[in-house]
Amino acid sequence: MSAGVSVRESSAPDAGPGAATKVPWPYLRVRRIPDLLPPVIDPRAEALSQVSPFIQGTLGISFGRDPHPPTLPGDLGGFGPQRAVSDDLPEPEAWVRHMARALVEVMSGARPAPQVIRWTTHEVYSVLARRNAVASRRTHRARPAIVLRVRICQPADGVVEACAVVVDDGRVRALAMRLTGVDRRWVITDLQVG
């Protein structure tokens, strides 16, 4: 027997019933698993306390004081959502009438929730999506909602507070909502359903 090879006896298919041949099998080697954890970062290091004004691996060349320093990632300047004035927004009463019907249909399960995601904030949409998930478990299909009355109030430029009375499958509901003009469209920032 040589080093690193074991010998196993087995019967060959051509040989007779009592014949045995020697088949070499290599030993198994046990190797350590390499350490895949990231290196430990010392929180006391000075390099972490300084925020670099250079973003996305740009070349950091400085020719003196920059009159327009680059912005940090948290400061989006003019690239985020922009507030809109009333002149740039659609007529609020017709918009509230359509959205009140759509919101009631979403809450009753007759309309999918993602249809109103563009017109609501994250908080309002999460409430609507939760109510839609509960309502869609029912097999009863409701009739289309009918908006009976809409009232509008504009407390500030680009802000509308509205209420609507909606009949949903024989049930009367009241909706109160606050709309804010963002990027030339209305967005529902608050919603109360009664």
Outline of the structure:
It is built from 3 helices and 6 strands.
Report on this structure:
This protein has 194 residues and is of the alpha+beta class. It has a domain at 86-193: Roll (Nuclear Transport Factor 2, Chain: A), CATH 3.10.450. The chain contains 3 helices and 6 strands; from the N terminus they run ββαααββββ. It has helices spanning 46-49, 92-108, 122-135, and strands at 5-10, 21-26, 146-156, 159-168, 171-182, 185-193. The protein has a 4-stranded antiparallel sheet with strand order 3-4-5-6. Strands 1-2 form a two-stranded antiparallel sheet. A hairpin with a 2-residue loop joins strand 5 and strand 6. The termini are far apart. Residues 54-73 have low confidence and may be disordered.
Jot down its keywords:
194 residues; Nuclear Transport Factor 2, Chain: A; 4-stranded antiparallel β-sheet; two-stranded antiparallel sheet; 3 helices
Question: In terms of topology, how is this protein built?
Answer:
Elements: E1 5-10, E2 21-26, H1 46-49, H2 92-108, H3 122-135, E3 146-156, E4 159-168, E5 171-182, E6 185-193
The CATH class of the domain at 86-193: Alpha Beta
Mean pLDDT: 75
Contiguous uncertain segments of 5+ residues: 54-73
CATH fold-type name of the domain at 86-193: Nuclear Transport Factor 2, Chain: A
Apparent shape: elongated
Give the N-to-C terminal Cα separation: 88 Å
